[in-house]
Amino acid sequence: MGAGPGSARERFPVVIVGAGQAGLAAGYYLARARVQFVMLDAGRRIGDAWRNRWGSLRLFTPARIDGLPGMRFPASPSDLATKDAMAAYLEAYADHFKLPVRPGVRVSALDVLDGHYLLSAVGQQVEADQVIVATGANQTPRIPALAADLAPEIRQLSAGDYTHPSQLRPGRVLVVGAGNSGAEIALEVAKAHETWLSGQSTGTISSAVFTPPLWWVAMHILTNATPAGRRVMARMASRGAPWLRIKHEDLTAAGIERVARTVGVENGKPRLEDGRVLDVRNVVWCTGFGHDFSWIHLPVFDAEGAPVHQRGVATSQPDLYFLGLPFLYGVTSALIGGVGRDAEFVTRHVLKRSGSSVLRGK
Fold first, then answer.
1. What is the pLDDT of residues 52-77, one digit of tens each?
2. Cα separations (Å) of 195 from 77, 171, 182?
3. What's the predicted TM-score (pTM) here?
4. Domains along the chain?
5. FRET partner for 342 with CA separation of 20 to 30 A, picked from 66, 242, 252, 314?
6. Three-state secondary structure along 306-342?
C-alpha cells in the first residue's frame, strides 16, 4: 500500500496519467481485476477537458455508442450529447466504479529510477511498476508559424482556447481550418460577427456511418491490422475531420464566406493562397492538435515525437503504455465508443506483466 497523499513519495503497482475517457476505461478494467492503482489528472474536475470547449459543441457519435465499459450513456440511442452531458457522464462513471482519481495533479516528468518509474508533480512524487499514459488526443494546438507575424491588435485563439464568442474582439473573424471543428466554430461566431472560413473542404459524411453494421466495420475492419484499415487511416491522418451534421448550405445561410487557405501575412494581416488579404480583428486557429510528451524522459518516440508502440504497448520500454491516441489500433481508437477495446487490450498486458490472471470477458 502506498503512503498517504501528503507524503513526499508514494508507490503503486500501476499509475494512470489522465482521467478522461481513455484513462477511466483502463481504470474500470484494473479495478475489476482488483489491481492497486491511482489515476492522476491535471483537471480540477473529471470531465473538464469537455466542459472547457466551445459552448455549442456536441458529440458527433450517437449516444448508443458513447458509453464506456460497464456503463451505458444515459440518453436515447440516437441523441447527440452536449459537451457538458459528456463531462457529467465521465464524472458519474468514476464515482460509480469508485475509481481512485486524484484531480488537480499535473504530472511534469516521467523518469526511470532504480528500475521503477518515477512520476513527478508539484509537491509530490509517485513510483510505479507500470504506467499508462492516457492524456488524450487534443493536447497541444498546432498553430502555423505565420501566426507570430500577425498584428498584435488581432486577437488569436486556438480551437482549444475558444469557448464563446464573447472572447472575440468586435469586428471580423477568420476561422482557419475547414474541418468539422472549424465549421462548427464558424457557425457559432457568425451569429455575432462577419466570418470567413479558410481552408480546403474536408468533405462530409452521413450519420449512417454510426449505424450498427457500419460501426462494426469501423471497429473490426478499419484497424491497422488490415490493408483497408491502414489505407483509410492514412487518408484520415492527412486531413481534418469531415463534416457530419453541417452542410455547405448551412454556412451560406449563416453568411459565412468560404475562402482559400491562409498561407502568409501581409502588413500584419492574413494573406490567402489566392493573394487576397483579409482585414480582420480575430483569428481562430482550427488547424489541429499535436501531442506533448516532452514530460516523458524516455527513449520511446520516433523522429516526429510520436510514441513507438504496438496497440498501445511501448515497443522499447517495458511496462509503459499509451491510450486514447488517434489510430492507436483503428479509426475508433480516439472515440468514446472505441477506447474501451484498446483499454481492455492494454490492461490485459498490464496484468500479464504483473503476473496477475488475465481479464475475464466483459
1. 999 889 888 999 999 999 999 999 99
2. 34, 9, 11
3. 0.89
4. 9-139+291-354 (3.50.50.60), 142-202+239-285 (3.50.50.60)
5. 242
6. CECEECCEECCCCCEEECCCCCCCECCCCCHHHHHHH
